[in-house]
Amino acid sequence: MRMSALFGHTLRDFPKEAETPAHGLLLRGGYIDQLMSGVYSFLPLGNRARLKIERVIREEMDNAGGQEVYLPALQPIELWEQSGREAALGDTLFHLRDRKERGLALGATHEEVVTRLFQDHAQSYRDLPAILYQIQRKFRDEARPRGGLVRVREFTMKDAYSFDADDDGLNRSYAAMFEAYRRIFARCGVPTVAVEADSGAIGGKGSQEFIFFTESGEDTIVYCDTCDYAANTEKAEFVRPPAAAADPQPTEEVETPGATTIEGLATFLGIDPAQTAKAVFMMATPKEGGRGTPVFAVVRGDLEVNEVKLMNALGGGVDLRPMLDSEVAEYGLVAGYASPIGAPSNVRVIADLSLEGSPNLVAGANKPGWHLRNVNLGRDWHAPTADIASAKAGHGCARCGGTLRSSRGIEMGHVFRLQYVYTKAFNVNVLGADGGQVMPTMGCYGIGVERILSAAVEANHDEAGICWPASIAPYDVHMVGIGLDRDEAAKADAEALYAELRAAGLDVIFDDRDERPGVKFNDADLIGMPLRLTVSSRNTAAGVVEFKVRATGEGENLPRAEVVQRVLEAHRALVEGLSVESAALRARTH
RNA sequence: CGGGGCGUAGCUCAGCCUGGCAGAGCGCUGCGUUUGGGACGCAGAGGCCCGCGGUUCGAAUCCGCGCGCCCCGACCA
């Protein structure tokens, strides 16, 4: 590609909507353009990077036994109603109507469609196992797009769906996808760590997320400093700090004027927050709509309620929201002084595991200005217990007793064991070897393509610009021509080299513009191709071409006759350096 | 959906408080000089000042109502 003809230009200033360094570099480099909130166009450079990422994904999916399909974005709403996800996704699903007023949805994901496809075309156990995958646009009406390309409303996703006859088969497919994912992220230069995750609205159980650690991440991950346990806080198990053992003491009222928060209460009474019980009121409303159920969640004062865990403890299928003041009054609760003792019978009380071994806590007395001392679960009040509190840095690891640490991160990919969620919803069966019916068990495996793009830039840039990982760079080589308009020999040299490099199979961008050297070098650094070659009068006269590696700054003058071979070798070395092993090393030292 | 910020040239922004010709830098076009890390001169092009309504002789500027974008939270496979 000649840069004089390339559509799109670099900007000198960072556009003000740039939310992260990576987002800013992509905007400045002429890679992407925002059309509206959460919707981006890709210019030629950005599109090439996207396609390179897709190529890596295709290669790894095909190697792992996947077969690519192409599925509709326009989908009948009935399909979503049948799986129950029309309600589960709610406003996140884009709804529309055709001219005959038929209800349609824009595909937010494709489990329903692919399950139907499988049903129509799989006939017997001989069609198992099957792994179908697609790399396509998906649409989600996100409540708040953010983070540049991180949370958007229209995006490219690779989704794979596996169908197996039994658990062993599913485990094999899952393991194959897991390994493919490690290879994909490594080859794309994005260090990720696999962590245990909540399955959310997609259903199923047993899922892992591939997380790219970054301060601007949306998720909080805890990981053990001793063993390899790592999990999203939506899911993370942990050992609660132990409470001091003590015999239950008689309950007594204590006046606590103005102490409406745990912090205020602990200060007022001169005790540790862990010696209190914290009450959080929520309303659990069915996804389908309708009247909600009041929920009274109790955790020890040193912990926080985790809404995802709470939702799962309630059996799922509900939306949780904080209770309105009017509802608090309606159910006879006293904000700041609420008590699980004598909670109204129409309020669902649920206690965190931390309450079980923590005697003599201070809890609300259910009247303004008063608390109760020495409240004990099981003696003074009763409620089912569950893990409904968030793990935090400093807590104990549930696996090995080590200490948990935490970091922010972005989900790059997610692998799920769906099992029978969709085959059951659509009553999918194939003929078994014994003549009976077999219901396939499913897995699904997603990767956000633009998230990889964004994370690859975040993980690979410096002050001057992007340093693309070689396997996903829009071009392999950036050729800079200096003063070619004033030197016929240098110009001929550059043109010849441009042709030779392309003939050798390299993707080359050739800066043939009539610009000053500084402009060209700065643009080359900004848009970030992995290798740079400079052809100029003085180099041509000396029979050399300047060679430089973008990421390291290392370089040398190569004899003209060796240039193509040396560049090929250097490029191969960069691509091979993007291995699973090197990625693991980088992730560990994040 | 709650709280906050912003909206003027392709980009970054000034002008608004205190109403009176639509501005700067960068970028862009042409000509000339220059040429190894974002040169210089000359001449130009480029605007629904987010929209609608109101106040006023007169509105980018004041008032009202919308819309859009961004941030924090709620939400989020």
The tally of domains stands at 3
Spans of at least 5 consecutive residues whose pLDDT stays below 50 are: none
CATH A-level architecture of the largest domain: 2-Layer Sandwich
Helix content: 25-40%
Query: Do you know the CATH topology of the largest domain?
Result: BirA Bifunctional Protein, domain 2
Task: Provide structural commentary.
The structure is a single chain. The protein is an alpha+beta fold and 590 residues long. It contains 16 helices and 33 strands. The strands form 9 sheets. Strands 3, 7, 8, 9, 10, 11, 12, 23 and 26 form a 9-stranded mixed beta sheet that branches. The chain has a 5-stranded mixed beta sheet with strand order 17-15-16-18-21, covered by helices on one side. It has a 5-stranded mixed beta sheet with strand order 30-29-31-32-33, sandwiched between helices. Helix 1 crosses helix 11. The protein binds one RNA strand of 77 nucleotides through strand 17, strand 23 and helix 13.
Features:
BirA Bifunctional Protein, domain 2; YbaK protein; 33 strands; Rossmann fold; alpha+beta; 3 domains; nine-stranded mixed β-sheet; RNA-binding; 590 residues
Q: Which helices and strands, and how do they pair?
A:
Blueprint lengths: L20 H8 L3 E5 L2 E4 L1 H20 L3 E2 L5 E3 H7 L1 H5 L4 E4 L5 E4 L4 H11 L8 E10 L14 E11 L2 H21 L5 E5 L9 E7 L5 E6 L5 E3 L5 E2 L12 E4 L6 H8 L7 E10 L6 E8 L6 H7 L4 E5 L2 H6 L17 E5 L8 E7 L2 E6 L9 E2 L9 E2 L6 E16 L1 H5 L4 E2 L5 E2 L2 E8 H11 L1 E2 L2 E2 L10 E6 L5 H16 L4 E4 L5 H11 L3 E6 H6 L1 E6 L5 E5 L3 H14 L3 H9 L2
Parallel strand pairs: 3-7, 16-18, 18-21, 29-30, 29-31
Antiparallel strand pairs: 1-2, 4-6, 5-6, 7-8, 8-26, 9-10, 10-23, 11-12, 11-23, 13-22, 14-20, 15-16, 15-17, 19-20, 23-26, 24-25, 27-28, 31-32, 32-33
Helix pairs in contact: 1-11, 2-6, 2-11, 6-16
This protein binds one RNA strand of 77 nucleotides through β17, β23 and α13.
